[in-house]
Amino acid sequence: MQEPSPEVIRAAAAGDLDAFEELMRAYQAHVWRFLRHLLGDERLAEDVTQETFLRVHRSLRTFGFRSKFSTWLFRIARNAGIDALRARQRRDVMLRQLPASRPVSDGSTAVEVTVALASLSTKLREAFVLVEVFGLTYREAGETLGVPQGTVKSRVFTARARLVTWMAAGQERTGEM
Amino acid sequence: MRCEQAQSHLSAAFDGELLTAEAAVDARTAAAHASGCQRCSAFSTQLTTLRRTLRYEVVEQVPDVAPAVLSTIAEQRHHRPLASGWRLAPVAAAFVAATVAGALFIGVNPERPVTVAAATLPERIVAAQASLQTLSATVTVVERGWHPRVPRRRYTGQLRYSAPESLALDLRDVTDYPRGSWQSNDATVVADGGRAWTRGPVPCPSQLQPACAAPRPRVAAVWGREPFDEAAPLPLDLVLPVRSFTLAANPPLLGSRRIGGRTAVGLRTTVAQVQPLLDGLRSAGDWRLLHPADQVELWLDDASLVPLALRVRPAADTDRKWWAVRHGYRDGAGTTLLTVDLRDVAVNEPLGGGAFPPAPPGADLRDAGFDDAETAAGIARPRWLPAGMRPHRAGAVSGGGTEVAIATYSDGRAWIKVRATEAWSGGWLFGNLGPLVRAVALPGAGTAYIAEGGRQVALHGTGVDIEVTGSLSARTLRRVAASLGVTGRPIPERWTQAGTATLAKARRTVDGLLLPTALDGFGPPAVRSSRGAVSLAYTGAGARGFLLSQVRGQRLSPPLEPDVRGVRVRGAAGRYTPLLGELEWVESGSVVSLRSQTLSLAEMLAIAESLAPA
Q1: Are B50 and A113 inside 8 Å of each other by CB?
Q2: Tag placement on chain B: N or C end, fewer CB within 10 Å?
Q3: Same domain for B572 and B537?
C-alpha cells in the first residue's frame, strides 16, 4: 500500500478539501475492504467507511507522522468498526446471517473463505485481515490494534489454522479437489 | 517439533516475519519438519491458497463514499460560526479543468428545440465579423453563489470595441458586501493594438475572503503585443462569439424576443462552448467557477449577432453536484449563476475620444517583444485573401532565439495571421499545433498540417516554416496557406507529429476501426497511428473536443485513478474515470477509449453509441 506524501496530509490537515479528497480516493477502497471483512456486511462497511473518513477529517491535525498513515487510518477504521459492532450488537446477528459478502471471482474457494472468515472472532479476524489482505507487518498490525506483535503473530496463526481446518472440512463435505 | 508449533513458525515465515535469528532458525526447522509431514505440508499449501483468494480478490463495486463525506463536512462547516474560517483551501484551477461535465441540455426546459431556423446561425456569426466596425454598450452582470456570505454580486460597466483589435471592458463592483473589508471586484481590460493593460483585485480565493483583501488593485500593462496574440487573447468573443460558433452544430433555438429595443434571437448552449466569451468577460477580476456542462441561454442581436443577454444555470446531473461540493458551492437547481446584459447597444457608430485609455501610472510593465514594421520581412503577401481583407499590423518578434515574421490582415472583426520563420530548430511543427494534427494536401502547395479543427494550419517548407491562424473557417485558412508560394513538405520522421496518419492508414492499423457517425459540431479528426494504436482528435466549438483511441487488446489496463465507475457502453461493461473524463471499454478485440474534458458523460455515451466500423 502506498503512503501519501506528507504535503498532502499536511494540506488536508490544514483544511484543504481537495487534498482530503485525494486521501479519501486513495484509501477508501482499502478501508471498505477491511471493514467488509471485519464486519461481514457490505452495507454496514460502507456506512462505517464514511464514518471513518469523517473521524479522520476531525483528527488529521493530531496525526504526528509517528506511524505510517495507513496504520493510523486502519486504527481509526478498526475503532469505528468495533464501535459499529458494539452499537448495533451485530456480532451474533451476523454470525447467524452468513454469508453477507458477495461471491468473488474464483468461485467456491473464495465464497468458502469469506464464510469461514466471518466465523472467526473479531479479534482473530481483524489481525488476520490486516496481515493477510493488506500486507501489514506484525508490528504495524500491532500498532493498529494496540496489541504486542507477538499477539498479532499468534492471532494470525490461530486464524489461519481455523480457516485451513474449515477449508479441509469443506473439501471433505463436498468430496472435491 | 510438534505440528502446531511448526505451523506457527510456517505462518510467521509466510508473512516474512523473521526478525530475529531465532525466528529464522525456527522457520528452517519447521520447513524441514513440513517436508516430512503431510499435515504440515498441506497447511503450507493452504496458506498460499488463502492469500491468493483474499489478497487478490476481485472487488467489483467499491462504494464511493467521498461525495457523502465531503458533503457532510461542508454542512458542518456551514453550521459553524463563519468567523472561524469558512474554508481555507485555495481552489486549484487545474482541477477544475480536469473535471468532467454533466449532461447536456437536461432539466432546463423540456420544450422541443427548434433547429430549422438555426441552420445558418453559426455561419451567420462567422460572416457577421466583416460587418462589425465598432460597438459600445453598457454592461450589467449579476454573479450568484460566489461566497456563502455574499450570495449575490452585481456589476455595472461599459464595453467598447473598435475593429480589429481595440477593446475596453470596464466593470465596477456595486455589490452590498457585509460589514468587513471585502475585496471589491472592480475589473478593467483595455487593449489597443500593441498595448494592453488590466486592472483587477490581487488574487484572493473567495474562501479566504474577507481576511486577505488587499487594499489596492493590481495593474499590469504590456506593450509590444503581437497582433491577435494567442498567449493573451483579446476578449473578442465578447463582441461577437465567433470562436464559440465556428465548427458548432446548429444550436437549439429559443425563439426571438425584444431586448432593449432590438430583436434578439435566443439559443441554448453550454459553458464549454461559450468559454471564449466567458473568459473575455472575466479576463480581469476574481470570479466564481462555472462547470463546463452548465447550461447557457444566449441571446444575440438578430441584425449584428452581438450578444445582448446571457444566463448560466447549473447542469442537473450528479457529476455537477459533486463538483459543487468539492468547490464549496451550494448551487440550487435552476439558480441563475451568472447574468450578463448588454444595453444601450450601438453598432458601427463613432466612439467618443478616449475609448481606449492608456495604462494608469504605477502599472507593472512588460515588453512582449513584438516590433511593428511596414511589412513582415520574409513573408510574401498571400495571393489569395477573402474579399475585403486589408493588411493590418505586421512586424517581427523573437522568442527563444527564433526570429518570427508576422503579417496580419483584417476586415472588421475578422482576422488572419501568418507567422513565418527561417530559423526553426525542428523537433515538432512550428506554431502551437499540439501533438495531434491532420495532414492534408493543398492544391499546388504540397502538404499542410492542420490542428484544432482547422483553426491552425502549418507548412514545413524548404528553409521556411509557416503557421496560418485566424477567425475564419478552416477552408478559408487553408486557401490562404496554399497561396503563400511555399510548398509544404512532409515533416521528418523524428518530429513529434510524424505519427500523423490518414484514416486509411489507421484502418489498416486497427481492424474494424470504429468511427463516430452522425457527428455534428466537430471538424474532421486529426489522426495519429503508432505501434498498433490509433488516436483520433476531434475539435468542436469553443472549448469542446474529444479524443478517441483504439488499440488491439482484450482487457482494460488497471485503473490509473481510484475514482472509477462502471457504466454500460454499447451493451458491454465499461469504465468511466471522472477525473480524466475517460470512458473505456473492450469491443471486438480492441480497447476503445473516449476522453474529453469538456463533454458530459451523457454526450460521450451518445458518441460511443454512434460508433460504427469504418
Answers
A1: yes
A2: C
A3: yes
